[in-house]
Each structure stands twice: as C-alpha cells, then as structure tokens.
Amino acid sequence: MKKLVILTGAGISAESGIKTFRDAGGLWEEHRVEDVASPMGWALNRRLVLKFYNDRRRQLAGCEPNAGHIGLAALEKYFDVHIITQNIDNLHERAGSTKVIHLHGELTKARSTKDPELIYDIGYNDIREGDKCDLGSQLRPHIVWFGEAVPMIEEAVKVTGQADIFAVIGTSLNVYPAAGLIEYVPEGASLWLIDPNDVYVPGDRRVEVIKEAAGKGVEILAGRLMDLK
Ligand code: NAD
What is the DSSP secondary-structure string of 160-222? Predict the structure, then answer.
C-alpha cells in the first residue's frame, strides 16, 4: 500500500462548527491567542486559560466529524494513511482514522505542570483550579502553547519523509514547525492542497490545488488518488 500522509489544520474542522484562527481575524473564539495559548497567558491568568479550554472541550462534545474527516478515514481501505494534525480536537479519531499524530496536543487530555510525561485522559470533563496530578501539582491542558516545544514534530518529520503522496488540508501554513514539514516531503511524492482560500506553500514544488472546502475537497482528492493507488 502506498503511504498517504495528510497535514491538517483548523480548516478541516470548520464544517463541524469549530472556528479557525484566520476566519476569526486573528482572534480565536473572541480571545487574543497570547492570552489563552501561551505560557505567559497561563502565568498571568490561569483561570481564564482553564475556562477557555473547558469551553472548547464542551463545544467539541457537541460537534461531529464532517465529510472531510470521514472521507480521509475511508481512504485507509486503499492507502496507508497517516494524519498529522495541528488540531486539538478529536474529530479525526471519531471519524475512524487510526494513525493520527497531534502536533499541538489534545483537548481531551490534561497533564501535570511538574512532569510533562504525566498525561491523563479526561474526556469532556473540565479542568478546575486545584485539580492536581499524582505529584500534587496543578493540572493544565495537554496543549502545546505558542513558544513551547513541539515534541511530536520528530515523529511527524519521519512519517513525512516516507510519504508517496502528501496532502495539506485547511491550514494557512503560518504556524511553524508544522509548516516546515513540506520541506521533508520526498522529491518523488505528489503534493496536494485543499483550501477554499489561497495558501502560500513554501518552496518551489509543483502543487495540485483543489480550491474547495474540506468536505467537497476530500471527495475530489479521493477520486483523483484512485489512479495513484
Ligand atoms: P488557520 O486558522 O491559520 O488556517 C485555517 C485555514 O483553513 C485557512 O487557510 C482557511 O482558508 C482554511 N479553511 C477555512 N474554512 C475551510 C474549510 N471549510 N475547508 C478547508 N479549509 C478551510 O489554522 P491553522 O493553520 O490550523 O493554524 C492555527 C492553529 O490553530 C493551530 O495551531 C491549531 O492548533 C489551532 N486551532 C485548532 C482548532 C481545532 O482544533 N479545530 C481550531 C482553531 C485553531
């Protein structure tokens, strides 16, 4: 089976009712990103940060995977599909995708502020001030905030380097190191992009652009990939 590697961003979940950064004009769900998604934000107002992610988690509980997520999961019948997502939602997994790398963490997990390896499944439950890990320190969202290291990038680079086909869906490619993955796509692999808006793809590679929203775009991509399987 050929290896199909997909890099997804907030755009793939837009049709499920979750706002992207861009569409919100630099604000994410009415908040400045620095206030709710940075170590500084956490240091200054822990209560606000916890509320922000508790709200996102509750919203996620009421959202469903859309045709884009479902179409990518269905491609596992024909390809060795690996999803690398910048999203913190769990909609790829709920659609049935089995190999998902979360570059920026996961909303349904919490972790210790003392030991980053101490990670807990919390489902759709809130994290409150005073909720502690087994070492006795406050729990925080299991999210990679701006300015923090991205531990899963190594695995993502490895998978990208083995791709026969690489597709980018619903990401503005503004956030690094995720956007830098394009550099690791092998020379011989075909490169695809699905986005209803123009996106600058770094480098001078030939890119097959499908200028559609994710649901429709994944359907078109699947049809065109059938010749490559
Ligand atoms: P972004 O907001 O910068 O870019 C979103 C891209 O999706 C844009 O290019 C836009 O044109 C496109 N888009 C909009 N509607 C679409 C649709 N229906 N189908 C396909 N594409 C569509 O988001 P990003 O590049 O993912 O980077 C921002 C960061 O935001 C990431 O770090 C991510 O962790 C975080 N984020 C995550 C979620 C989520 O988990 N669902 C939501 C918002 C932000």
Answer: HTT-SEEEEES--S-STTGGGGGGGS-TTSEEEEE-SS--PPSSS---EEE-S-HHHHHHHHH
